[in-house]
Structures are given as C-alpha cells and as structure tokens.
Amino acid sequence: MAAAIKQLKQLIEELQRQLSELQAQVSRESHMSAKDTTGASSMAAMTLGGEATGIESALQVARSELVQMMIASGETTGLISDSA
Predict the structure, then answer these.
(1) How many CB atoms are closer than 10 A to CB 15?
(2) What SS3 state is found at 45?
(3) What is the pTM of this model?
(4) What is the pLDDT of residues 24-78, one digit of tens each?
(5) Exposure winner among 8, 35, 50, 65, fewest CB in 10 A?
C-alpha cells in the first residue's frame, strides 16, 4: 500500500507541474490574442484551457484515491495541506 501511495503522490506532483505549465501557456496565448487578428491565439488558449480542465479532473481523482488509500492504511498525516 505504501508503494501505491508514493506513486499517487508522484503522479499528483507531475499533474500539478503539467497544470502549472499549461496555465502559463494559456496566459501567454490570452495576451497574444489581443494582438492576433486571425484568432489563432484565442483558439490555442481555448484548446489549452480544455487540456488544463482535463488535468484538473485527473488531479481531483488522484487526490481522492490518495486520501482513500491513506485512510485505509491508517496514514492520515499530510491529508490536509495548508499551502492552498
């Protein structure tokens, strides 16, 4: 169970990194869309936003699974993060 918990924590960290990168890309594309008369930047921002939504959903599932595994194993330290 401990190995599965460790893997989920690593997955969550990777998903958070991916989400952060995507959010930065969305921000850049949104700024560029103000100058873009073709609409390509706006379309790219929307596409990236959709990808970010998918990663946010995966994060929610992974966090939920992590909490369930930690509770089942009796490991409750670290369930609540104050770094929000």
Answers:
(1) 19
(2) helix
(3) 0.79
(4) 998 888 888 778 778 888 888 889 989 999 999 999 999 999 999 988 988 777 6
(5) 35
